[in-house]
Amino acid sequence: MNSDEQFWTDLGMKYEAAFGHDVGLHNVIQRYLNMLPTSAFVMDCGSGTGKPVAKAIAESGRHVHGIDMSPGMVSLSRKAVPSGSFEVANMLDYTPTVSYDGAVASLSIFELTRQEIDTMAHKWFQWLKPGGLLLINTFGAEDCAQAKAENYDADGECANKVEWKFMSNNVLITLFTKAGWKVLLEKAGFDIVHTEEDQFTPPAAADCDPEPRYYIIAKKKSST
What is the rounded CA–CA span in Å between residue 95 and residue 85? Predict the structure, then answer.
């Protein structure tokens, strides 16, 4: 198990306590689910503890398959969402055996590089059926004071190695601007059909920076 996998495995229930009752995220998940077929198969990329995303998908009667690089998180997901299926996998290396109606990446791609996030956008396109829906829960770089001028690439669309406090740990994250997400997703073959913003303040015990959430729902084009 590498250091990232161990970090998330150790975090486990502390993460769920801090982030499992996010009203804004719950509302966006419901909007997203209402846009999917009732029999949809949905991929949860970075499924964590299974709450709230995979659990909400399963409770809606839809089918959820989650992947996470942390064995501890996958174990928690299997307990929280017994009707779902979960496996230990790195999303960058993963190749599904079926096509999906939907895919979700909720707070799970911050530690990827810009190129890796671009790679994931193209992977999501490959994994989804035509017309499939992608839900991303992230932050807009321009809404984060921690993203300084020196963090941005020359095109101004992405801030790299932004210092962020998360569960008492200082981490470096990658953040696209809202315009940067539009460019990235359109190049990968998606149309953005809905965006939403919300300020989430984790409980004080979580020892995290406030999170200026940016939610994106994007639809896979029938052809590119």
Answer: 15
12: left (phi over 0), alpha (psi -120 to 50) or beta: left
* Cis preceding-peptide flag for 202 (omega within 30 of 0): no
Structure tokens at 155: 């095109």
Q: Which two tokens stand for residue 153?
A: 């690439």
3-state secondary structure 66-93: EEECCHHHHHHHHHHCCCCEEEECCCCC
Positive or negative, the CA dihedral 34, 93, 11, 148 is negative
Q: What is the pLDDT of residue 223?
A: 64
Using the predicted structure, report yes or no on whether residue 129 has a pLDDT greater than 90: yes
HEC string of 167-182? CCEEEEEEEECHHHHH
Q: What is the DSSP letter of 152?
A: B
Band (2; pLDDT cuts 50, 70, 90) = very low
Q: How confident is the model at residue 202 (pLDDT cuts 50, 70, 90)?
A: confident
Handedness of CA 177, 178, 181, 186 (dihedral sign): negative
Q: What would the mean pLDDT of 16-31 be, rounded to a whole number?
A: 81
CA–CA dist 216, 138 (Å, integer): 8
Residues 41-61, buried b or exposed e (16+ Cβ, 10 A)?
A: bbbbbbbbbbbbbbbbbbebe
